[in-house]
Design a protein that fits this description.
The chain is an alpha+beta fold. The strands form two sheets. Strands 4-5-1-6 form a four-stranded antiparallel sheet, sandwiched between helices.
Length: 185
């Protein structure tokens, strides 16, 4: 297929906004073809309680997410949840300097995360070249406390409302190796 016949990808980032600017950002990263390779949502002790059971791939995704705070001193992972086929993250970019010029943007940070996570997963699973994440990601600039509170609650409640989620899938897990780990902060 030539480049003229390819579908035009919609750019989700605001063209005028500086995504290296300090602030809070809500990011959703989906797996390739929304395959459930990251975790299983299980039942908790109480009826309304859910647990997140990470797969090998999900554990690597979590480790690499938390590593971002070491790699980028101005990045704080405020809240996150690793669902079967997507990850919700609230990033806080602080005033600290990055040590690089120009300062990396939110897209640079997410791209580095997805690339490193994919590379490590493929190495461990002996699956070179396998795509784990969709090409892009969804983001929202959190503009005020009310928006922050609503998004925080959404992230926290995501496992409980999993079967109602637009990203819900009932496809069997793609990777049978499970490591039980609560991923909500």
């Amino acid at each position: 297929m030539d480049s003229e016949n390819l579908p035009k990808r919609k750019h989700t980032r605001l063209g005028y906004y500086d995504y290296s600017k300090s602030g809070y950002y809500f990011v959703t990263i989906c797996t390739n073809e929304r395959k459930p390779v990251l975790s299983i949502v299980g039942r908790g002790l109480a009826p309304a309680e859910k647990t997140i059971n990470l797969t090998k791939t999900g554990k690597i995704a979590e480790e690499q997410l938390l590593f971002l705070e070491k790699e980028y001193p101005f990045v704080k992972i405020d809240k996150y949840v690793i669902m079967p086929n997507h990850i919700h993250i609230i990033f806080a970019l602080t005033e600290k300097t990055a040590g690089a010029s120009p300062r990396p943007t939110l897209s640079d940070i997410v791209c580095a995360y997805k690339s490193r996570t994919t590379r490590l997963c493929n190495k461990i699973n002996c699956s070179p070249g396998k795509k784990i994440f969709q090409t892009s990601f969804y983001d929202e600039i959190i503009k005020n406390q009310k928006a922050y509170d609503e998004i925080s609650e959404y992230v926290y409640e995501n496992p409980v409302k999993w079967e109602e989620d637009e990203l819900y899938c009932s496809i069997p897990l793609q990777n049978n190796s499970i490591n039980i780990k609560e991923t909500q902060k």
